[in-house]
Specification:
Shape: elongated
Distance between the termini: 103 Å
Largest sheet: 26 strands, mixed
Order of helices and strands: HHEEEEHEEEEEEEEEEEEEEEEEEEEEE
Radius of gyration: 28 Å
Helix content: 10-25%
Strand content: over 45%
Number of helices: 3
Number of strands: 26
Oligomer: single chain
Structural class: mainly beta
């Protein structure tokens, strides 16, 4: 082989080797869950060996995507500083997401950007939040579904099937999705915007002494709503009986289809009612204004400042 031919062969081999090395790096980056791409954005991803939990408790800024499955899996991603301040563990059947004690960055400050957590578990019964949490899932089947919020929570659980659902809010709460349950209760002393659709075999109970905006639809055997705060409605209700107790301020639009509707107003109630029900009974020691369209077999009104009119 002459020198020219040898030089060409060496060059071709070098190019071939270089091409193989580039292909190998790309394959490694892809197969490692795009870790290189995340690293280029200043983010890292870790899979944690955690299991045997059916509840979630968070006191960090977190975005959670939940999947119900036969096994356990917890994957976290975020900036290196954000993950360094996070302590994620399992205690007494609860996945605990919290800040590490006395953990600071080099500049003596925290990175408060949200951590993203993908969670898979066979069962989920409760979520507790004291920071900023976004929770989403496609569907969930469980015996009970309990929400306790003292922070800021965006709850998008998809379709939830359970025996009992309970939502307790002392912070800022926004909800959507659908809940199918045997019974359900809502207790609000914070600020809530409820867009969830409830289908309940038994009793649906709501108690508000904060500020609540209630939309969606409620189907239940009986519906009891007790408002001592401020409630704004844009809601549809189907039930055998509906009881409204108002000692605060209550306004908005409501459609009601079912049996008797009973109103005990000690506060201020202004309602546009689209009705298809048996009877409407009101007892007023406050201020009551209801404009009714649709069908109500009988109206009986008692009180000093009352205006109930059919449109």
């Amino acid at each position: 082989m002459n020198i020219k031919t040898l030089a060409i062969a060496i060059t071709a081999a070098a190019l071939s080797l270089s091409a193989c090395n580039v292909t190998g790096k790309n394959a490694q980056s892809y197969n490692s869950g795009n870790a290189a791409a995340l690293a280029s954005e200043g983010k890292v991803t870790k899979t944690l060996n955690l299991k045997n939990f059916s509840k979630i408790k968070s006191s960090l800024n977190v975005d959670i995507s939940y999947t119900q499955g036969n096994s356990y899996k917890v994957t976290v991603s975020g900036t290196a500083k954000a993950l360094a301040r996070a302590d994620i563990s399992v205690s007494n059947g609860m996945l605990v997401i919290e800040k590490k004690a006395n953990r600071t960055n080099a500049n003596n400050s925290y990175d408060d950007t949200n951590i993203v957590i993908d969670i898979t578990s066979p069962r989920l019964t409760a979520i507790s939040n004291t920071s900023s949490l976004t929770f989403s899932s496609d569907s969930l089947t469980t015996d009970k579904f309990c929400i306790d919020n003292n922070g800021t929570l965006q709850l998008s659980p998809g379709l939830v099937k359970c025996v009992h659902a309970k939502i307790s809010n002392q912070g800022v709460l926004n909800t959507d999705g659908q809940i199918l349950a045997s019974s359900a209760s809502i207790v609000n002393s914070g600020v809530s915007t409820l867009g969830t659709r409830f289908s309940v075999d038994g009793d649906f109970i709501m108690a508000n002494n904060g500020h609540m905006t209630m939309g969606g639809k409620v189907t239940a055997y009986s519906v009891d709503m007790d408002n001592s705060g401020i409630t704004t409605y844009s809601v549809g209700i189907n039930a055998d009986k509906l009881n409204l107790k108002v000692t605060g301020i209550e306004t908005g639009d409501m459609s009601y289809k079912g049996g008797d509707m009973n109103i005990n107003c000690l506060g201020n109630l202004t309602l546009k009612l689209d009705a298809d029900c048996d009877n409407l009974f009101s007892n007023t020691n406050g201020r009551l204004t209801i404009d009714i369209k649709g069908q109500v077999n009988q109206c009986a009104n008692y009180g000093a400042i009352t205006r109930v009119r059919r449109l």
